[in-house]
Amino acid sequence: MANQEKLQNQDAKKISRRNVLKAAVAAGGAAALGFPMIARGQTGPITMRWQSTWPQKDIFHEFALDFAKKVNDTTGGDLKIEVLPAGAVVPAFQLLDAVSKGTLDGGHGVVVYHYGKQTALALWGSGPSYGMDANMMLAWHKYGGGKDLLEKLYKSIGANVVSFLYGPMPTQPLGWFKKPVTRADDIKGLKFRTVGLSIDVFTGLGAAVNALPGGEIVPAMDRGLLDAAEFNNASSDRLLGFPDVSKVCMLQSYHQNAEQFEILFNKTKFDALPAKMKALIESTVEAASQDMSWKAIDRYSKDYVEMQAKDKVRFYRTPDSVLQRQLQAYDAAADKKAAENPMFKEITASQRLFAERAVKWDLDTNVGRRMAYNHYFAKAAGKTAPEGSKKS
Buried b / exposed e across 287-308, counting CB within 10 Å, b at 16+? Predict the structure, then answer.
């Protein structure tokens, strides 16, 4: 009897184990056995810890939170992303390494912040982009081969990440200065903050450049470590405190006229997600891109007006002579890097091919807005238009 009971217990264990394995296969195989996938009937959501490259008070961090909320809502709570501000886990410029190694599950930033890893990464956002605006850059990225080139670039530096670009940015200001810039020589000798290929552009104009993350710029200006600096837009600049250390902002520039945001996932974590969730994330990226654009128009324009009315900031249009010198400085820097870096050369060739077609179509097709604006708002325009601006 004892032997019979022993055999019955062994048979029961075998049947129980087979039932567990069958249940695992039915629920998605590896997922039910503890791998990082969502299984049918799973009791809890997948959680991800992210970090942005932006200070908590910056509107850019708000954009990161907006994206996370859209993903959380779209997946019905099956995926929950928590986004921490810059420095919570790693410094802003170390985001790529942290996500690649799995220290963070993902992040929100810009491609040009990885410039130190591979100079060609700066081609997604710093420089004149051959006349393209940020929406055209995103069009090139999705339909003109840019996405494949960025994946190739990340593989070349061993980055274990999945990248999504979204959120086209308006042309960024030349920067904040102690006095208006009237000619290119006014930039010579200035201690200036910028990032990416813009470092080479402003160095070519004679500035002493220091690349700093957003949260460190205004304190550096306040302590005299910087004479001038650029960051991004009216809302970010105001929230970060630029009007407290400067009252002169030069609008329009070619150093970053086509930048966009980057959403990073650790590739191992992303690849483990179910196909349906990956598709939801990709769709959410594009929805968030449009919503970010709309929010930016609303918020940036309000802060642009309020900085003049409340903060007494004076805005000036960057002279054409300075813009032309920027193009020349960029060409010199880009030619040098293309000669040293085959990937840099390949990417610029792809961008130029797309830009030649897309920018011509845009210039020939879309009517200029200045005439209509002046027709309806000429009197009010005198209160808010940048000084020295030309009608077009």
Answer: ebbebbbebbeebbeebbeebb
